[in-house]
Amino acid sequence: MSRKFRFQRLAIACMLGGVASAASADVVYGDQAREAFAARQALLAGILDASPKGKVSADTLFQNSFEVAASSQQNCDSDRDGDGLPDCVETNTGRFVSVSDTGTDPDHADTDGDGLRDGEEVLGAETGLDLPALGVSPLRRDLLIEYDWFDSSYDCGPHSQRPTAAIAARVAAMFASAPVLNPDGSSGINVIQDYGQGGLFVGGNRIEGHDAILPGSLDATFHQIKNENFDPARLGYFRYVMMPHRYNGGSSSSGYAEIVGDDAIVSLYCQNSESNVARTIAHEVGHLLGLHHGGFEECNNKPNYNSLMNYRYQFQGVDTQCDAQGDFAADDFSRGDRLSLDENALREPQGVCGNPAIDWNRDGTLQEGLAMDLNPNDAATCGTAMRKLDDFDDWANLTFAGVLDFKGQLKSVQSETGCAGAPVH
């Protein structure tokens, strides 16, 4: 664990007095980790609420000679939540009809909680970005991503790291299936991806003039390349994913990302199959949305944390059979429905779901009270400790505050992480 990462985690825990000694600072376990995560989420929610956009006048909304009743004129002169929409058009019905009947909540600037203000989702961004044309809605969570990629001949001959339409569709399908309820009654998260496919989506492009093996991670070179290839009008709206051959001078890591932020790297070198790339994109975007490798903590390889954020399932797919083994066809974040596992007293007949049983030590018998370390290879975080392993509801705990990273408001709660290398098939 890097000193920077350790100190950032310690700072989060200390908001609650969560560490008692230097020995416990390296890893925040159990309830302390949950409390630290909850404290960060509350702080991020406050950052979103404290970031009002500019206001749009009623004249703009009603420029087509729309007749406003005298009794509602006062509401059209006020904007209680500062989202850029007059109160008189925010009808709070959960149904968008038009710019004069938005269905949004006049007391919440971001009705759907996706980090984009209602006024900008209805009328377009102050930077000139036409968000409605891109497909956003003020009543359904939207997640916008731009991919810029490299082509190279390293390691395996000429190839491109550009995501394909099939990869983008797979990412979109996973988020669309999320058990997340939106104000309009729909479920799921709408992912809008620009990989240079044409039409309105011409921001994603091949990166020229730089080596396809980045010298570092989210360093000066990364930001120089981003500045050359990413429209500044998209800052605060799009997450940015750079796709080199490798990063950090040739690392075999599959990616790197801010935990709560807007910048990530996906680097699959020659292991850039559809499955590997789609799942790694989801994994790195999960970091941008605030998730750790253990959900609320860095404790990795937990067999009961059923998420692509978990190295155990990142490339294998999540567990659909309750046997703690990945299903190659399944992409998902955890839904928080697995049992907790006490490594000091494992109950093999209950497995991870209550049924079927799992013979953890493979001795042919099912034991009550087995003591066994279930993730011994994760020594950097929790693999050397006998402890309780908890699942986590990823989907219910995403934060969309990362789009504000360019404003410098997230540094007190933000960390960075590198991720596992892709398996060789």
From TrEMBL:
Region Disordered, annotated ranges: 96-119
Xref: InterPro entries: MetalloPept_cat_dom_sf (IPR024079)
Signal sequence, start to end: 1-25
Comp. bias (Basic and acidic residues): 105-119
Keywords: Signal
Entries under SUPFAM superfamilies matching the protein: Metalloproteases ('zincins'), catalytic domain (SSF55486)
Keyword set includes Ribosomal protein: no
Protein name stated in the entry: Peptidase M43 pregnancy-associated plasma-A domain-containing protein
